[in-house]
Design a protein that fits this description.
The protein is of the alpha/beta class and 320 residues long. The chain has two domains: 173 residues, Rossmann fold, CATH 3.40.50.1980; 130 residues, 3-Layer(aba) Sandwich (Rossmann fold). It is built from 16 helices and nine strands.
């Protein structure tokens, strides 16, 4: 069968992902996790990662912080830190951050604007560290970079911010509530076979498959569904070109579409494209009407604030 491989702009994937001192690092040696514990605890690997990430931050908490990532901006609000600059975005930012100066997009921040805010520290997403570092080094600023690609990444990063800004209680309180909500959702999943899921990211003729290491993929994994990229295709890349041979072989039970803008319009267009290729309609997902466009406001970027809602929606979509 002829392979249908589509391309996608890297910036879109980055946008979805959201795009020190020894004392801080030492404080980050924490506790491990699992469903059933309402208090989140950390494995030794996670504790080591938190310690390493916390070492990027100054010993004394920075006073004036610029956030170049929507995900980071949201987490700063969670721990009670108000930045002096935040990214320009179409995503909803915390209401109390409305008047804060905008510094441009997450991938192309305005260096002059950042400099004018006189920050002590710039905090961004680890996935674009090299790009941001190159820009802020021009104005002699240092950056700290946090993983924001997946749901587990965000939990780790919130822990780091709590450590870096002496806001451990705020971070722990939030994560404890988050874990409790997650456990409630997961334990309510019906006792049935886990569905095989394909997650598509993109628009029109530009689609990629999303792995468990992406935000949406990690939420799907949390609700115990099987991602065909991981389970069947055995691929470790976060975003994988769409290949009809692989998709047909995997035969997903459900297809989830993550697309900019109107989810229903994207789904209508996708289904129209599908009719041009008979192989699609033979998939279990189409036979059982399990093709769903996800709400971009909830799933369009890596978000701790939206995670519980996202998990609940995925549970309902995949197990109803």
């Amino acid at each position: 069968m002829k392979k249908l491989v589509f391309s996608i702009v890297t910036v879109s994937a980055l946008a979805l992902a959201g795009c020190g001192g020894t004392d801080k690092a030492t404080k980050a040696e924490v506790k491990t996790s699992g469903h059933g514990n309402t208090t989140p605890v950390k494995s030794k690997t996670e504790a080591a990662q938190i310690k390493m990430l916390a070492a990027q931050f100054p010993t004394e908490p920075a006073k004036n912080v610029v956030a170049t990532s929507v995900s980071v901006t949201e987490m700063l609000d969670i721990v009670g830190i108000t930045p002096v600059g935040i990214p320009s975005t179409t995503h909803k930012l915390p209401d109390n951050f409305t008047a804060i100066p905008k510094i441009g997009s997450a991938v192309e921040p305005d260096v002059e604007k950042i400099a004018s805010l006189n920050p002590d520290l710039v905090i961004g997403s680890e996935s674009i560290k090299d790009s941001i570092d190159k820009k802020i080094s021009q104005i002699n600023l240092k950056g700290a970079y946090l993983p924001t690609d997946s749901y587990p990444d965000l939990k780790i990063s919130l822990e780091v911010l709590g450590t870096a800004f002496d806001k451990e209680n705020a971070a722990t309180t939030y994560l404890t509530k988050l874990q409790k909500d997650e456990d409630k959702i997961v334990t309510s999943i019906p006792d049935k076979a886990a569905p095989k899921v394909m997650i598509l990211f993109g628009t029109g003729s530009s689609f990629m498959l999303m792995n468990d290491t992406t935000y949406v993929g990690s939420l799907v994994k949390t609700v115990k569904a099987k991602n065909i990229v991981t389970e069947t295709m055995k691929t470790k890349e976060s975003y994988v070109p769409l290949n009809m041979e692989d998709v047909t072989a995997a035969n997903p039970d459900a297809i989830l579409l993550v697309s900019h803008g109107d989810a229903n319009a994207a789904l209508t267009q996708f289904k129209a494209d599908v009719k041009k290729n008979g192989a699609w309609e033979k998939l279990n997902a189409f036979k059982n009407d399990k093709v769903q466009a996800l709400d971009y406001d909830i799933f369009g970027y890596a978000s701790l604030a939206n995670a519980t809602t996202g998990l609940e929606q995925l549970k309902d979509i995949l197990y109803k």
